Amino acid sequence: MQKMKETKNIKDYADKLLSIINKVRLLGKEFSDDRIVQKILVIMPEKYESKISSIKESKDLTNISL
Question: What is the reported pTM?
């Protein structure tokens, strides 16, 4: 269970999560892009809640690219 700290940069944390996902993929587990986007949105701190809500309401998460 990863959680982003308030002081961390979003890009750095997303890169860290993608690194973990790539390692898991090497073991044969498949992750779809929409699942990864959902994971990134879940780890975001509360201060980004309004932006997260806007993304979820305005976009189809299955069509958002990493």
Answer: 0.55
